[in-house]
UniProtKB/TrEMBL annotation:
NCBIfam families: FCP1_euk. Coiled coil: none annotated. It comes from Eruca vesicaria subsp. sativa (Garden rocket). Its EC number is 3.1.3.16. This is RNA polymerase II C-terminal domain phosphatase-like.
Length: 276
C-alpha cells in the first residue's frame, strides 16, 4: 500500500495557512474559502487563513518597527491623491485640457482624464522614509493599477501593495487586507464612512476636486486654470502631521511586544489635521 501525501498524518492537522489557486501550500489539499482572505495583490490566487493573517500582521509590524522604524500608511486614491473624471464630463471651460498644452500632473487614461494632486511626488518621497505605504481604492483592479502607475511608475513606494475592489468588493474598507498590525497603521481617506471599524486609525483629508463637480455651480480649479496650493495644501500639511505622529510613536523605545505601543492613541481618529 502506498502512503498518500494527502492523508499523511503530519498534515492531518494542517491549518491551511497559505493557499494558492485553491491548493494549500503545506498539505496540498483544497480547503474551503470560507475561513480565508484573498491577497491577490501580493500573488495572484493567494489566500491566507485568519490565523496566518494575524501571525503575518504581527511579524511584519515587529520587523518594520524594530528594523526600519517605519509605521504603516494606507492611502485612499480618488479625491485623496488624484481626481479623475470621464473626458465626456469635462465642462465647456475645461475642454482646453484635452486640446492644447496640458498642465503638469494631467494624464489621459482610456476615456478618463486624471489629475494628480499637487505635492503628491514630494509627499510620497518623504512619507516613504517613515512609513510602509499601501493604496486602498474602491476602484477596480485595472483602474487602481493604472492610476498608481502614474504616481509611482517604478513601484518605489507601493510595490504591489495596491488593494482594489478585487480583494475588497464590499462597500466598506477594512484593515483585514493590510498585512500589518492595526496598532501601527495610519489611514488617510477623504471618506470617513467607509471605515466603520477603523475610525481611530483614520485621518480625514479634504476631497481634492480639480474638475467641475457634477451639478455644482462652483467654478473648478481647471476652469480657473488654478490648483490647490503645493506648499500649503492638504498633502503638505498632512506630511507635517505624519512626521509628528511618527516622532511621537518612536519617542520612547519600542518594546519587543507591540502591546505597549498604539498609533491610535496618538491619532484619536477620525481626525482632520490642521490644513488638511
Ligand atoms: Zn493545508
Amino acid at each position: 500500500m502506498t502512503m498518500n501525501v494527502l492523508s499523511s498524518p503530519s498534515h492531518s492537522n494542517c491549518g491551511h495557512w497559505y493557499v494558492r489557486h485553491g491548493i494549500c501550500l503545506t498539505c496540498k489539499k483544497k480547503p474551503s474559502h470560507a475561513e480565508s482572505l484573498p491577497f491577490d495583490y501580493l500573488f495572484s490566487g493567494l489566500r491566507l487563513s485568519q490565523e496566518a493573517v494575524s501571525y503575518t500582521k504581527r511579524l511584519t509590524t515587529l520587523i518594520s518597527l524594530h528594523t526600519h522604524k517605519k509605521l504603516y500608511l494606507v492611502l485612499d486614491l480618488d479625491h485623496t491623491l488624484v481626481h479623475s473624471v470621464k473626458v465626456s464630463k469635462l465642462s465647456e471651460a475645461e475642454k482646453y485640457l484635452i486640446e492644447g498644452e496640458q498642465p503638469q500632473g494631467l494624464k489621459l487614461y482610456e476615456s478618463r482624464i486624471v489629475k494628480v494632486r499637487p505635492f503628491v511626488k514630494d509627499f510620497l518621497k518623504e512619507a516613504n522614509k517613515l512609513f510602509n505605504m499601501y493604496v486602498y481604492t474602491k476602484g477596480d483592479f485595472l483602474y487602481g493599477k493604472k492610476i498608481v502607475k502614474l504616481i509611482d511608475p517604478n513601484k518605489t513606494y507601493f510595490e504591489d501593495r495596491v488593494i482594489t475592489r478585487r480583494e475588497s468588493p464590499d462597500h466598506n474598507k477594512t484593515l483585514d487586507h493590510v498585512l500589518a498590525d492595526e496598532r501601527g497603521i495610519v489611514i488617510v481617506d477623504d471618506t470617513v464612512a467607509v471605515w466603520p471599524h477603523h475610525m481611530r486609525n483614520l485621518l480625514n483629508i479634504t476631497k481634492y476636486f480639480y474638475f467641475k463637480k457634477d451639478g455644482i455651480n462652483k467654478v473648478s480649479y481647471a476652469e480657473r486654470k488654478r490648483d490647490e496650493s503645493r506648499s500649503n495644501g492638504a498633502l503638505a500639511n498632512l506630511l507635517k502631521y505624519l512626521k509628528v505622529i511618527h516622532s511621537e510613536f518612536f519617542s520612547c523605545e519600542v518594546k519587543e511586544e507591540l502591546d505597549t505601543k498604539d498609533v491610535r492613541l496618538l491619532i484619536k481618529g477620525p481626525f482632520k489635521p490642521y490644513g488638511c
